[in-house]
Structures are given as structure tokens and as C-alpha cells.
């Protein structure tokens, strides 16, 4: 995540949160605007606690 923040590359974040059917919430595609010891900051100053994140991957930004 630090690389994505420094390079301003979009990431795809999967949260640990599931709905009543035990399905994960939709992935969040965003830039990381900042971070601290407990949270990352994404779109419009939204804080996501690190312990709620299941997976993070770089979004493929290549154009065909």
C-alpha cells in the first residue's frame, strides 16, 4: 500500500466484511490518499481500518 500511495497508483481493496448471505462486499477501486498506524485514507477522506482489509492489489492501468 505504501508503494501505491507514493506512486499514486489505483488499488483494488477487498474488505473482510460480508453480507447476510456470507458474500464479501463489492471491491473498492481507489487511490490511497494517506495512511497512519491504524487506517488508510481513500476517496473523500474515508478512513478504512487496516484490520478490516482482506486483500489489496494494484489495479491494472495498462491500455490495450
Report on the structure:
- With 64 residues, the chain is mainly β.
- The chain has one domain (2-58): SH3 type barrels (Roll).
- 9% of the residues lie in helices and 38% in strands.
- It has one helix at 2-7; strands at 11-15, 28-30, 34-35, 39-42, 46-49, 53-58.
- The strands form 2 sheets. Strands 2-1-6 form a 3-stranded antiparallel β-sheet, with no helix packed on it. Strands 3-4-5 form a 3-stranded antiparallel β-sheet, with no helix packed on it.
- The radius of gyration is 12 Å and the shape is globular.
- The N and C termini lie far apart (25 Å).
**CA-based gyration radius:** 12 Å
CATH topology annotation: SH3 type barrels
SS class: mainly beta
Question: What is the total tally of β strands?
Answer: 6
Amino acid at each position: 500500500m505504501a508503494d501505491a500511495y507514493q506512486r499514486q497508483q489505483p488499488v483494488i481493496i477487498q474488505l473482510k466484511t460480508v453480507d447476510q448471505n456470507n458474500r464479501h462486499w463489492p471491491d473498492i477501486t481507489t487511490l490511497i490518499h494517506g495512511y497512519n498506524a491504524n487506517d488508510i485514507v481513500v476517496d473523500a477522506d474515508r478512513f478504512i481500518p487496516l484490520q478490516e482489509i482482506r486483500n489489496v492489489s494494484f489495479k491494472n492501468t495498462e491500455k490495450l
